[in-house]
Design brief:
By secondary structure, the protein is an alpha/beta fold. It folds into two domains: about 180 residues, Rossmann fold (3-Layer(aba) Sandwich); about 140 residues, N-(1-d-carboxylethyl)-l-norvaline Dehydrogenase, domain 2 (Orthogonal Bundle). It is built from 16 helices and eight strands. Helix 4 runs parallel beside helix 6, helix 12 packs across helix 13 and helix 14 crosses helix 15. The model has no long low-confidence stretch (mean pLDDT about 95). GO terms for molecular function: glycerol-3-phosphate dehydrogenase (NAD+) activity; glycerol-3-phosphate dehydrogenase (NADP+) activity; NAD binding.
C-alpha cells in the first residue's frame, strides 16, 4: 500500500483518486476549496466534480498541500496546464516538496502558453523535480468513464524505466491498465495537441458535417500531430498507440470531451466567450492551440488544422470558413 497525494480535485483528479483507491492505496486530494475537502472527508463524495461517484474511506482531502504531501510515496499533479507554473512556484517554497524523493506523475495535458513548454519541462524547471522522478500518464482518459470503472487503458511514460514500472503497478486495477513507454516527448505532445484537433472536429459536428468529414479531420489531425512530435524528438509509433490514436479518437468523438463540446458550440455559432461560459471545466485546447501553432512554426511542421483553429479562436475566421479552406489545399501524396 502506498500513500498517494493528488494535487488538484477536479474531474480527472477525482477519477484517478478512485483508481488509486481501487488499487489498494491511501489517497489524499489537495483541493483549493474547503467545501470539496469537507465533502470528501465527511461524505466520501466530491461535491463539485463527479459528485455521484463514491470515493470510499481510503480517499481523504485537505486544502493544505503540506499535509497532503507529508509521507507521500507518489505525488500526482492534476491541475489545468496554464495554472501549473504558479502552483509549482508555491510548492517549491515548501520543505516537504523540496526534500521529497517520491515519483511525480503528471496527468496534465497541455503546452504552456508564452514558453511553449511541455508539462514535464515546467515540473522540472519550476518545481525543481529531477527528470528521473517524473512520469506522465496519457491515453483515452475520459474521467467520467474511468470513475465509473469502465475498462480503460493508458500509457505511463518515464525516462527512468523503474519509475514508469512503479507507477504502472500502483495504478493497476481490474478496470484500469497502463502500459509503459520511455517516449515522454511523444506522449506529452500527443496529449496536448489532440485537444486542438478535437476543437476542429467539434466545430465540424456543430456545423452538421457527416462522419466522412469528421473521420478525415481526425486522420489528418493525427498525421500533423505525429509530424510535430517526431520533429521534437518523439517516436512515430507513439502516435499510433494509446497516447496518440486512442486519446485522439476518445477526445474527438465523445460528448464527455470538453474540447469536442467547446468546438461544437463554436460550430453552432457561439463566440469564444459564450462557449466558455457554457462550459463546465477547462477546455485545454483553447489555450494550448496557440502554443502548438508556435511549436509547429519553430520546428517547420505544417499543421493547417491547428492554424485554422487558432484563426477561429482569435476571431479572424469562422468555423464555417475553416473546412472549405482545408479542402482547397494543394493535392499531394498522403505520405
Amino acid at each position: 500500500m502506498a500513500q498517494c497525494c493528488i494535487l488538484g480535485a477536479g474531474n480527472w483528479a477525482t477519477a484517478f483518486a478512485r483508481v488509486l483507491a481501487d488499487a489498494g492505496h491511501d489517497v489524499t486530494l489537495v483541493a483549493r476549496r474547503p467545501v470539496i475537502a469537507d465533502g470528501v472527508n465527511q461524505r466520501h463524495h466530491n461535491p463539485s466534480y463527479l459528485s455521484d461517484i463514491e470515493l470510499g474511506p481510503t480517499v481523504g482531502a485537505t486544502t493544505d498541500p503540506v499535509r497532503g504531501l507529508a509521507g507521500a510515496d507518489l505525488v500526482v499533479l492534476a491541475l489545468p496546464a496554464q495554472h501549473l507554473r504558479g502552483y509549482l512556484r508555491h510548492l517549491a517554497t515548501l520543505p516537504v516538496w523540496r526534500d521529497a524523493t517520491a515519483p511525480v506523475l503528471s496527468l496534465v495535458k497541455g503546452i504552456e502558453t508564452g514558453t511553449d513548454m511541455r508539462m514535464s519541462e515546467v515540473i522540472e524547471q519550476v518545481g525543481g523535480v529531477p527528470t528521473a522522478r517524473i512520469a506522465v500518464l496519457s491515453g483515452p482518459n475520459l474521467a467520467r468513464e474511468i470513475a465509473e470503472r469502465q475498462p480503460s487503458l493508458s500509457v505511463v511514460a518515464a525516462r527512468e524505466a523503474a519509475v514508469g514500472e512503479l507507477v504502472q503497478q500502483w495504478c493497476l486495477t481490474p478496470s484500469f491498465r497502463a502500459y509503459t513507454l520511455d517516449d515522454v516527448v511523444g506522449v506529452e505532445i500527443a496529449g496536448a495537441a489532440k485537444n486542438v484537433i478535437a476543437l476542429a472536429v467539434g466545430m465540424g459536428e456543430g456545423l452538421g458535417y457527416g462522419h466522412n468529414a469528421l473521420a478525415s479531420l481526425i486522420t489528418r489531425g493525427l498525421h500533423q500531430v505525429a509530424a510535430l512530435g517526431e520533429a521534437m524528438g518523439g517516436r512515430r509509433e507513439t502516435f499510433a498507440g494509446l497516447a496518440g490514436l486512442g486519446d485522439l479518437v476518445a477526445t474527438c468523438m465523445s460528448p464527455l470531451s470538453r474540447n469536442r463540446t467547446f468546438g461544437e458550440r463554436l460550430g453552432r455559432g457561439l463566440g469564444v466567450e459564450e462557449a466558455a461560459r457554457e462550459s463546465r471545466g477547462v477546455a485545454e485546447g483553447v489555450a494550448t492551440s496557440r502554443a502548438v501553432r508556435d511549436l509547429a512554426r519553430a520546428y517547420e511542421v505544417d499543421m493547417p488544422i491547428v492554424s485554422g483553429v487558432v484563426e477561429v479562436l482569435e476571431g479572424r475566421t469562422s468555423p464555417a470558413a475553416l473546412v472549405p479552406v482545408l479542402m482547397q489545399r494543394e493535392p499531394k501524396p498522403e505520405w
